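Hi all, posting the design record for the shared folder.

TITLE: backbone redesign
STEP: 1 of 1
STRUCTURE INPUT:
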């Protein structure tokens, strides 16, 4: 059993910030982290607040697409591949500010992220 289960949605900036701290502590203390999924699109599917605009929901749907890839990696390669993908996609979306439009506009963006993480770019077919 892992020392820590970390739940994330790739589009959540707060999860991203916390995950960077988790990876630092993981290296310093040799913690075993299990990377788990949570979908903001599903959690908020019935939300009717004024601030939850179609654009905001679109970002959450992009996160759901990225979780499909993370799940395929979990099933076929394992937890370390999920961690590598989350780090790579998080760096692009949150640190380099590529934006979620890049995710929804073309699978080539995600293929590039997968390649940069040392993962099979063909997994990008699981976006949809």
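Okay, here is what came back for every position:
SEQUENCE:
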């Amino acid at each position: 059993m892992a020392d820590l289960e970390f739940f994330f949605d790739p589009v959540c900036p707060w999860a991203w910030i916390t995950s960077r701290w988790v990876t630092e502590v993981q290296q310093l203390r040799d913690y075993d982290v299990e990377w788990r999924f949570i979908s903001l699109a599903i959690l908020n599917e019935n939300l009717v607040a004024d601030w939850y605009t179609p654009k905001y929901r679109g970002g959450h749907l992009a996160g759901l697409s990225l979780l499909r890839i993370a799940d395929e990696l979990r099933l076929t390669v394992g937890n370390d591949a999920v961690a590598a993908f989350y780090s790579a996609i998080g760096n692009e979306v949150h640190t380099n500010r590529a934006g979620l439009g890049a995710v929804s506009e073309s699978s080539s963006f995600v293929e590039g992220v997968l390649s940069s993480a040392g993962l099979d770019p063909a997994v990008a077919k699981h976006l949809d």
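COMMENT: Helices lie at 13-29, 40-43, 54-76, 79-95, 101-105, 107-116.
Let me know if anyone wants the other runs.
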